[in-house]
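quick one, 251 residues, struct below
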Amino acid sequence: MSVITQCPACKTFFRVSPELLLASEGWGRCGQCREVFEAKPYSPPPQMPALDFSASPMLDAYRFPAADESENGYSKDESSFSQGASGGLRLLGWVLLVLVLAGAGGLQYVLHERDALVAQKSLWAAPIQKVCAWAGCEIRPYRDADAVVIEGSSFSRTAAGDFRLSLTLKNTSAYELAAPALELTLTDALDQVVLRKVMAPADLGWPSGRFMPEHTVQLDVAVQLQQSADASGPVVATSNVAGYRVLAFYP
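---
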């Protein structure tokens, strides 16, 4: 059964349900003048003709806030309960959007760093392999040039007149790496470049292409120089070779 109340400011009558008054602790906001008042049941004075309240507007529910919410003891937020509910839905939507974006960013990171994650975190290998099977990507041995150290090398002439490169490579990391390539640079007496040659792991006798963790590899490679213009490539005079530089890298 509805209750009739009256705004003390503009004298407008309202039809209010008891459930609404219970939810707002008896407080309401006038739909005409926006006055906030305690919605007490209206009692007509004696000898006053009966009033027709069938067309009375409904009263907005008003939550009476804690005194520290504003300097006057009233909330500055004039949104209704329905507006509060829609604000909660908007917040939930933003939270879901953030979670979706975070998940997409995490997936992109895993796919981009998949080789390093599989090498450094073995527990991640199986899940990342499943993700790669779904995404159509390939997991390859990790490449970390900083972990590959040349511990020693030598470059000498053989009896046949060619050269031989010997060097010791070490994987200083605790995880498996891809076998590196080598760049050999030959220089003359003035340290000018005579020839630069790149050798892939297969050229170094490294067919597996894998460098085991904390492992040392001895390499001994024959280096042949072009002696005539009949063959493809530049003509190199072996007598001009006076020094060399060697670099391990990942192409």
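The chain has three domains: 1-75, 84-135, 145-249.
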